Write the structure tokens for this entry.
Amino acid sequence: MKHQIVLASASPRRKELLEQIGLSFTVQAADGEEKCEARLPQKQVEELSLHKAAEVAGKAENNAVVIGADTLVFFRGKPLGKPRNEQEAALMLKALQGQTHQVYTGVTLIWRQGGSMRQMSFHERTDVTVWPMTEEEIEEYVRSGEPMDKAGAYGIQGLFARFIRRIEGDYNNVVGLPVGRLYQEMKQEGLLDGADAVRAGL
Amino acid sequence: MKHQIVLASASPRRKELLEQIGLSFTVQAADGEEKCEARLPQKQVEELSLHKAAEVAGKAENNAVVIGADTLVFFRGKPLGKPRNEQEAALMLKALQGQTHQVYTGVTLIWRQGGSMRQMSFHERTDVTVWPMTEEEIEEYVRSGEPMDKAGAYGIQGLFARFIRRIEGDYNNVVGLPVGRLYQEMKQEGLLDGADAVRAGL
């Protein structure tokens, strides 16, 4: 059966990444449950991604494979969400500058096979090292507006590239969706078909 | 003295990266000398970047700071350039799949200070690990046309993201310009000024 891919996320960055690897899909944003019981970073992001995927899978077509994803930034084991204001953004950046932190994205796939629902979750971890930043650089960056809708108060794919020293792991995982691993898992589960093959001239 | 930044490269990817970090600059493409004497990867890319920067610096304005860059892919110590045809692209991808290889970008800055010319070169190395690829995936990817103008026959920022397992180092270095390190070196040398500061709303 041909699967229709549904991305359960309103994030324009996740949409761009799925487009980049040449998949056809539709978007059905999930509100997501912000709370979760898990303690370990990898369990937290997997659980949050499951909430999002399940929410959309409940109302999806029979032939759908739903992708949910959640990204969190961890510094010394503590999660950094999206900053609520400029002061909070500046505080997060003061913590991250000159240090290495962890970015986790959890991904859950839900689809029907035969008569039953199937589900699988995985996560990717990327270590990100940030150059030292002056107070002035932090203030300027906060004023740019880029930090405000992003976990950890920075966008690796934006202006903040000037402050990224190195990473270990998957870059796209930091942007919000580990498309390499996602593609491999979907291939493994037989969820890709000819229509998802490389499009000439893309 | 305010410096006018000149990028000595016709690569649209390098142009995008410099724009991404919010710098104002002009482009003056260098032909570049393809041959170099150096043996070590880091010396090769630095030497090639120097050729490009010097070519443009010779005809540049007095207040210019010229940026030259060269990117090479190395597999088991041997450089992989741009494939000359589809067969060569497929051979390169067959070598790289399932393995880890090295990407080096060398960067040279040339500018005037007082009456004299100043120059500095550096390089960044990134290790890239590629997922195993089937023959069919390699053929499809070659047919997409993406490999043909790229060292190592792949574009990490394109469709090939589905085959990237992980990296160690700077991602933008693989795209073609290590803008994090470049920004830090320019700051160190006093080559950035207020006009290069973060632009609000970028």
